[in-house]
Design a protein that fits this description.
about 40% helix, globular, five-stranded antiparallel β-sheet, alpha+beta, about 525 residues, six-stranded mixed β-sheet
Length: about 525
């Protein structure tokens, strides 16, 4: 057996290296015009077959013409990325925020990965936001905090304004909404730039602060080093390890288990160094409950909401703020659970989902396999999913609809919260955040404060996501398979949830560390 492994290991390494080389060659070579035309056809054909509301915002005749014009304009061979720049703005014309194109990135061999993993990119610690059409540094994850608040003017020789103008054509909000674009483009600035320029070992960035310009060069540096030479070193690392007693080890183990359990409950994000959801008490005498939810996609939400509303009940809180700003969405089951703590009477949260396939879960599940072996492994679970789905789809009013638990009439939780509710939103509040805000607003269960959400009020096409790897360019097409809509509609379609109180922060607010939306609520509560 050892002999067999001795001979097989080099073979596997050679095969792996050859596979990486073949993959990289595929995405960097020039694809023929005929191959690119085929990829355009595959993209449109898949959308037409499975997208349930393809022509909701862009009529068929108009979308047909856009795809036809795209093919006419591809007259010479292109690389994968050059093709991406042509194709993705056309897919964005569908005007459904969950539909788009992702571009493949270069792969590395295990040996190369080992070297690269010893380095960290200083630039990756910066987080950005859009305020008054300017991109400012929002956070640096505990690194060089002197940059927080600075405006980003140039990346290398490229004007940030010019870059964002181009990047904003690569994606769409739901419908005709515009508040989403600046927020999303600023947040994803680094990702789009590195997609555009490739892997950079250094990057010079020009910032503006208090009307003066300054530059910083960000490099890839060893992980154990720091850009701050005067930073204090951890003296504990130099000390010899002290052997712990059995009781001390037990106590340490107990603390670690508690910490990991809390991480799971609050949905701790290791890369962002924060919790996905938090509950605090603020305001005069700490009588206002403030729940910050950064996303509905990770952690033990049931345990968190059960604990949170017990605390709110014990504190006899009369005012609850739910902050969904920059919340990109997530699980329908979670927002349904959250609303059940706010509801005062029975409610219907969403309608049955319109679909173009009876088996959206299977379509989504099988499209996620990255290899032949992965597809074979996942196919073992298809019968289980099939029996789960087979009775969920049916014809209704001439449409194929898909029933799920959240589309049933539901009762409030026994310990439901009966006080005042305020929901904070902005243009980056998308998908599930918009659905939740829709229900709160329509059922008059709270006051929406901030700016129009990026996700549409009337419906969003999401639920399950279909992935399609285009055969020649290897670009990835993705789009939703289910129309998620609440029973509550507006006459004017294609816009987000409009706030009851519109407040948009300014650069001056940010410079003064002032949160105008939150402060408006606190003033209202104090009155």
């Amino acid at each position: 057996m050892r002999k067999l492994l001795f001979y097989l290991l080099p073979l596997l390494l050679i095969t792996s290296c050859a596979s990486v080389a073949k993959y990289n060659q595929q995405i960097t070579k020039l694809h023929s015009v005929d191959q690119l035309h085929k990829d355009v056809d595959v993209t449109y054909r898949k959308l037409q077959k499975l997208h349930p509301q393809l022509y909701k915002y862009t009529p068929k005749k108009e979308l047909d013409a856009k795809f036809a014009t795209l093919k006419e304009n591809i007259t010479e061979p292109m690389t994968t990325y050059a093709f991406y720049e042509k194709l993705t703005p056309v897919v964005a014309e569908v005007r459904q925020g969950h539909a788009g194109i992702s571009v493949p990135t270069k792969k590395y061999t295990r040996k190369e990965d080992k070297v690269l993993n010893k380095l960290k990119n200083e630039w990756s610690y910066l987080r950005f936001e859009s305020v008054e059409d300017a991109v400012r540094v929002k956070n640096t994850l505990g690194e060089d905090s002197t940059m927080v608040g600075s405006r980003v003017v140039k990346l290398g020789d490229d004007s940030v304004d010019d870059l964002l103008k181009r990047y904003k054509t690569y994606f769409s909000s739901d419908g005709y909404n515009t508040t989403f674009h600046n927020k999303y483009a600023a947040q994803k600035l680094a990702r789009y730039y590195y997609q555009d320029k490739g892997r950079l070992d250094s990057l010079q960035v020009t910032f503006s602060n208090n009307d003066s310009l300054y530059t910083k060069v960000f490099r890839r540096i060893p992980r154990d080093s720091t850009r701050f030479p005067n930073a204090k070193k951890d003296s504990l690392k130099d000390k010899k390890r002290i052997k712990k007693t059995k009781e001390e080890r037990k106590l340490a183990s107990k603390k670690l288990k508690k910490k990991l359990k809390d991480y799971h409950k609050y949905g701790y994000n290791y890369s962002e160094k924060n919790n996905n959801r938090n509950l605090d008490f603020i305001g005069k005498d700490s009588t206002v409950a403030y729940m910050k939810i950064r996303g509905f996609s990770s952690g033990d939400y049931e345990a968190f909401y059960e604990e949170a509303f017990k605390k709110i009940d014990s504190a006899k809180t009369k005012d609850l703020i739910i902050d969904l700003r920059d919340n990109g969405g997530g699980r329908l089951v979670e927002i349904h659970d959250l609303y059940s703590y706010l509801a005062k009477e029975e409610f219907k949260f969403v309608e049955e989902a319109e679909v173009n396939t009876r088996y959206p879960m299977i379509k989504s599940y099988m499209s996620r396999a990255k290899t032949v072996y992965g597809a074979a492994y996942e196919s073992l679970f298809v019968p289980v999913i099939f029996f789960k789905e087979v009775f969920k789809a049916r014809k209704k009013n001439g449409k194929l609809v898909y029933k799920f638990k959240e589309s049933n009439v539901a009762e409030p939780k026994e310990n439901n919260y009966k006080g005042n509710v305020y929901v904070l939103v902005n243009g980056r509040s998308f998908s599930a955040s918009s659905v939740f805000s829709n229900v709160v607003k329509a059922r008059k269960r709270g006051i929406i404060v901030g700016e129009e959400t990026g996700g549409a009020y009337n419906s969003t096409v999401a639920g399950q996501t279909k992935l399609v790897r285009l055969p020649n360019s290897k670009l990835m097409l993705y789009f939703g398979l289910m129309v998620l809509e609440t029973p509550y509609k507006t006459e004017i379609d294609g816009y987000g949830v409009k706030p009851d109180v519109t407040i948009t922060p300014t650069l001056k607010d940010r410079a003064n560390n002032y949160d105008p939306e939150l402060e408006w609520i606190l003033r209202t509560v104090n009155k």
